[in-house]
User: What shape does this take?
Amino acid sequence: MVERARKRYGGRGRVARGAAALALLASGLAACGGEGGTPTLRWYINPDSGGQAKLAASCTKASGGKYRIETSVLPNDATQQREQLVRRLAAKDSGLDIMSLDPVFVAEAANAGFLRPFTDAERPQFTQGVFPPAVENSTWEGKLYGAPFWANTQLLWYRKSVARKAGVDPSAADFTWDKMIDAAVRTGSTVGVQGNRYEGYMVWVNALIASAGGKIISAAERGDEAAIDIDSPAGRQAATIIAKLARSKAAGPTIATDDEEAARSLLNGARGGFMVNWGYIWRAENGDAKDGVIDKSIPGDLGWAPYPKVAAGQDSKPPFGGIELGIGAYGKHKDHAVEAVRCITSTPNMKFYMLDSGNPAARPEIFDDPDVVKEFPMAPLIRDSINRAAPRPITPYYTDVSGAVQSRWHPPASVDPSSTPRRSGEFVRQVLRDEALL
Assistant: This one.
């Protein structure tokens, strides 16, 4: 399986070879500043408000002159981030020391030999006191390839005035997707979701299936022979919910192209009622109200609750997201990179980053910190939700699996509980066996 993954990135044609050559040139130029002096570690980061750059400066100072950390910003889109990193790693770029990875890409990069695994002696400092789903997403075939940096999950956000009008309590133990959709229809309001054909839609599909007790695939260690489980009672329950919402008056008019921000705009609109979305919502809503982008009364009407259940009496499994820090297999300063990652993911720095960026920390203890609770009053709910969150399929072929599922489940209004899970399962199998193209 490792050999197949390496071959997969080896022959990319003239355009890819040219891109790889440019990547090598760029990394070589970036690394020149460290030759013969203080080693320079290049950290490729996802875009944020500057918090990672601040941590790079702080950990550079803390190293006492052993190394310095410089950041390079990746594209906004997670798929484009993956493509840029894969091209560099496939070209054995020695200038890629540390990288901020979406959890779903860790297995792929590890399986291809692109990441330096953490040793058994190093493992405890990156896993003890860390959310279990974050550790699970950072591990491949028993080895730790990523250091959990921040974790994330989705909550149910809602307008308290709409919930009162509908006579529902979204925090109630029996609050389900059906009850939420029905409440929105009764009140002429909406349920915001991520229904565009992109990774956010896969997040929703996977969370619904997991909340119904199922999986999209299992036995991922078998690679392209993994068990395909999406055609199941859980898959059909998920499809029933998506179809019901998409064909109801509770759906937004652009559900098939809605991403996180479109769903937030829907919640802030005249018909806004309910929405599933990530933890950044609280700070974004308050910031927009302060700047006059949205009505100043909206944050005061904003409530939060656990991710809705698929069935009463069965705990929901909210989505899991975040960032893991990986160390490039071809870097020249791997030991320094381990030390830098240890500094970046320390408890004080995780707290700093959560307060600075709004992205939840990967250590549960931080959510009890008074400074964090003051800034994020829903911190205990975020902590509990991350603890029970369900990862997306952990497989080196995740991009293929996600693309195949999206293609057969999109647009949401086309989903048919009697056929969509079966058709998507068949297509995932074909794609994994190279019998069909995305």
